[in-house]
Amino acid sequence: MQRLQDRVAVITGAGSGIGLATAHRFAQEGAKVVVADLDEEAGAKAAGEVGGLFVKADVANEDDVARMYRTAFEEFGSVDIAFNNAGISPPDDDSILETGIDAWRRVQEVNLTSVYLCCRHAIPYMQRQGKGSIINTASFVAVMGSATSQISYTASKGGVLAMSRELGVQFAREGIRVNALCPGPVDTPLLRELFAKDPERAQRRLVHVPIGRFARAEEIAAAVAFLASDDASFITASEFLVDGGISGA
Ligand code: NAD
Questions:
Q1: Using a 6 Å CB cutoff, which residues line ligand 1?
Q2: Domain 8-242: which topology?
Q3: Domain regions of the chain by residue span
Q4: Strand, coil or helix: what is 248?
Q5: Average pLDDT for consecutive 10-residue bins of the chain (249 residues)?
Q6: Rounded CA gap, 221 and 26, in Å?
Q7: How many CB atoms lie within 10 A of CB 60?
Q8: The pairing of beta strand 81-84 with beta strand 239-242
């Protein structure tokens, strides 16, 4: 029997990076995976690779989010795991003095409002079952700030962390665990795009990682699979840091 045998898992942003690696890991551990992404090509490819079901969804759109969980429930009969992971990187100059209100709002919509919408629509299914595991992707910057000036991004991830704590406490007695995943820098297209624009930023970041390298997406996926599984049955409302020691330095 595998750890996630027949659990139904909905993963947002599963077409790339951390979400994609987690889709593979969940499938290896026996889960039925719903791959959700805005990018139709990447999402469909990922679903094919893991033998899952693709749902095209914009996580900032409530109708899309509702349809995503409804599809999972109708196709597979439950929603056991929600990995609310889709997100975007900071705008080009994300310092408090430069970021305009439109850029700020877009980051909050995709990174924070999306998690609110996903929790709002996943929890009723989990309440009916009397169990469930929600993992919301925050970031190490949510607990320590960032030296690289990314105010809208850091604020959005702080919101994800606070919301996860609140919901973890609120729904603990109903068997629903809610945790915030806080990765350090991970070698994914999101990070590569950021560093391509500002190569010095990569060096500045790397210096602060005690382990001396960026994470592989598979290393984050392993932590997500743990949080999703019954091995983490006493872990809720936590900030789960997988950051190579960056927040401890
Ligand atoms: P990525 O860019 O490789 O993948 C993100 C995926 O989300 C893409 O497939 C993209 O199409 C999808 N997406 C973007 N906007 C969407 C929307 N509105 N609706 C649905 N899907 C959408 O990024 P990643 O590095 O794997 O990041 C995943 C999460 O991890 C993000 O929330 C990110 O903020 C967070 N994170 C990343 C790092 C890092 O260093 N890479 C560190 C900490 C936290």
A1: 12-13, 15-19, 37-39, 42, 57-60, 85-88, 110, 137, 139, 183, 185-186, 188-191
A2: Rossmann fold (3.40.50)
A3: 8-242
A4: coil
A5: 95 98 98 98 98 98 98 98 97 90 97 98 98 98 87 97 98 98 95 84 84 97 98 98 94
A6: 8
A7: 19
A8: unpaired
